[in-house]
Amino acid sequence: MYFTTPTDGTTLAYEDYGTGTPIVFVAGWSLPSDMWERQVPFFLDHGYRCVLLDRRGHGRSDRPTSGYDTDTRADDLAGLIEHLDLRDVILVSHSGGGAEVVRYLARHGADRVQRVAMLAATVPFLLQTEDNPIGIPGELIEATLTDLKTDRARWFTDLSQSYFATHMGTRVTPATIDTEIRRSLSTSIVSTIEVQRETAHTDCRADLAALTVPVLLLHGVQDQQMPIDLTSRRTVEMTPNAVLKEYLDAGHGLYSSHAAQVNADILDFIKS
Predict the structure, then answer these.
(1) Catalytic one of 30, 33, 95, 232
(2) Longest Cα–Cα distance in the chain
(3) 178: domain CATH number?
(4) Catalytic annotation present for 162
(5) Residue 99 in contact with residue 127, Cβ under 8 Å?
(6) Ranges for the AB hydrolase-1 domain (predicted)?
(7) Which of 48, 55, 12, 11 shows the shortest CA–CA distance to 33?
(8) What's the domain range around 173?
(9) Distance (Å, whole) CA 240 – CA 209
(10) 8 Å CB contact between 238 and 102
């Protein structure tokens, strides 16, 4: 299924399954909505409606030359929620999708949202600045973008083991790793680069402080892509009504490597 964004007429793909309270899944950077394949059947079985968005440049959505800034991507999410007239929404996001969710709430309010769950989210602020000395130096971010432009297949492959923290004995098969690499490579190169850059430069600190809905943060202590000290441990301190659950042996791809625990924790959060 598809809808047209009110901002610039981009056509975005989405999937819509089941009935009941809607859960809107927002994928991580470079990944299509297929990444949620271990969550959707679980929540359908528990009576929830599952709505999944392919952000612009990802999956089956259009690949425009612009609109990859966080504000526009947050507006795209708003466009989907309004297109389906969803109410009492539970937002579930991974990685860069977390910044989109937080910015959506800042720009569009929480009238349609009851709760938010963020996995390994890229908030509050990744870039090193004078008032954010713990952040990542800008030159390192630019070096990553250069690597992606040069050989992104190698870049994703080189990071695949740490992504799932296989050194901790997580039960992730080679087939699963290959699938996630292929999914990442299916994203347009322009979207891959621009969303990565924009996410690194998005400051969500004020947005988080203004949140009024309950927030669940799930994060792997072994996450090398988004270290927990830089992200969720800071986020929980500045966000009202937030709780953090740490997975001691999980990496960035906890939605897959720790799917059963992730699903159970989100379900408990929804029902609490």
Answers:
(1) 95
(2) 48
(3) 3.40.50.1820
(4) no
(5) no
(6) 22-257
(7) 55
(8) 2-271
(9) 7
(10) no
Active-site entry in 94, 219, 252, 258:
252
Please check whether residue 186 is in contact with residue 32, taking contact to mean a CB–CB distance below 8 angstroms: yes
Give me 48's structure tokens: 């929830």
63-122 confidence digits (pLDDT tens): 999 999 999 999 999 999 999 999 999 999 999 999 999 999 999 999 999 999 999 999
Given 30, 54, 223, 232, which residue is catalytic? 223
pTM for this model (two decimals): 0.98
| Count of C-beta atoms within a 10 Å radius of residue 26 | 28
Tokens of 56: 């612009």
Separation of alpha carbons 259 and 257, rounded Å? 6
23 φψ region: left (φ > 0), alpha (ψ -120 to 50), beta (else): beta
Nearest CA to 132 among 206, 188, 182? 206
Cβ-contact 181, 160 below 8 angstroms? yes
pLDDT given at position 171: 85
Nearest of 130, 117, 137 to residue 48 by alpha carbon: 117
Q: How far apart are the C-alpha atoms of 208 and 242, rounded to whole Å? A: 10
- Taken as a whole, the chain contains a residue count of 272
Residue 4 CA to residue 267 CA, distance in Å, equals 31
The question of whether 268 is a catalytic residue gets the answer no
Distance CA 230, CA 204 (A): 13
90's enclosing H/E stretch is: strand 89-94
Give 13's pLDDT tier (boundaries 50, 70, 90). Answer: very high
Q: Is 88 a catalytic residue?
A: no
Number of domains in the chain: 1
